[in-house]
Amino acid sequence: MPRVSVEVDGVRYDDDVEPRLLLAHYLRDRLGKVGTPIGCDTSNCGACTVLMDGLSVKSCSVLAVQADGHEITTIEGLGDGRNLHPMQRAFHEEHALQCGYCTPGMIMASLDLLRENADPSDEEIRAGLEGNLCRCTGYQNIVRAVRRAANDMRQSDQAEEAHR
Amino acid sequence: MIPATFDYVRPSSLSDAVAALREADEEGKVIAGGQSLMPLLRLRLAYPEVLVDVSGLPELRGIRDEGDSLLIGAMTTHYEVIRDPLVQAHAPLLAAATATVADPAVRHRGTLGGSLAHADPAGDLPAVVLAMDGVVVTSAREIPVRDFFTDYLTSALEPDEILLGVRLPKAYTGWGHHYEKFHRTAQAWAIVGVACLVRRVNGEIAEARIGLTNMGPTPVRAHAVETAVADGPASRQAFQAAAHDAPDGTSPPSDLHGSAEYRRHLAQVLTARALAAAAGA
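YS: structure for the whole thing
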């Protein structure tokens, strides 16, 4: 079996994996990172979205062996359990979820969007999240949450900048 | 679902990769970004014995300026294509069409070479490189794009042949361009797509190049429309008249998204729109 060395949420793991093991299953079943759910079998829904070297990927469409040598960030790598990441807080406060199944993927895809566009319009948010499906909310509150998180994150960046 | 078992190799040289495919004796499959292949593996529509991961091969990387053409490495991701300054300068049609492929996460992993090798007639990029008279460069030879797509999900690639990149002529630098894609939901495949390039001189269309997505088992050129608009006015009326010929020589599929007849109608409407957008009319 091929051996992989992957950094997940800041911790390095060395494991022997079967070639057909999906990254999503590696994260959930081997590392216990069940914060990343699996929603569909067609690469459509985006629930399993994680960041790979900072870019969003659907972890059901990446083999664990393909993640060898790369850095993965899951939803579990964002907060510390007590303090929420600003994107998590915004999803909470704007009621951007009902059942919550799509939320980890939505949050990771939203962070990817803000990486290149710190102040996205509603239209840009919708385009950025087109690979993530939510069957509860109608997306209104998700878009609102991403806008709020973008504002909060810009303000905290500015505050940090001023502090320096 | 979980894919059927397979062996996996990630060679660090092109010769090793070709040797691995040869050894697999037609049961091997190249994986690049895997955004087309992974769903097929998971649905068990494909069950290769060996996956040959080409992500470690330097020959497939980068975008090179070759003077009168660009050579875009097969492993160039959609994300990279969209942002590349050379592509933006000399092949903005490719950048524009690539921006419509799937969604951001898929574009981070999916590659230009993978899209071409997968040869899906509903894929957006085959029609673009066909319209641009590109040349596919492989580990064994060079194949003009017009000879590359041979059937539904089938290309001219031999089982032990690896796609290294695609060469696009700079001849279309400065031409008006547009990719018109018709689909019902975000991230869905094109029901029909039209890749269009036009060269305008003094308010007239001097030349046009048009590639059609999902109008047959392979991408097709709308040569009749190209001829009909050449040396004519850059007007919507002229485009609509010329676009009448768009379905000529096509054999579009009938499926749950639309009948062949509906696609022929769409090809006319979308070709007129694409010409107007490309010409700024």
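YS: worth flagging: Chain B touches chain A at residues 1-8, 10, 31, 34-35, 38-39, 41-43, 51, 53, 55, 79, 102-106, 108-109, 186-187 (CB under 8 Å).
IM: good catch. Also The mean pLDDT of chain B is 97.
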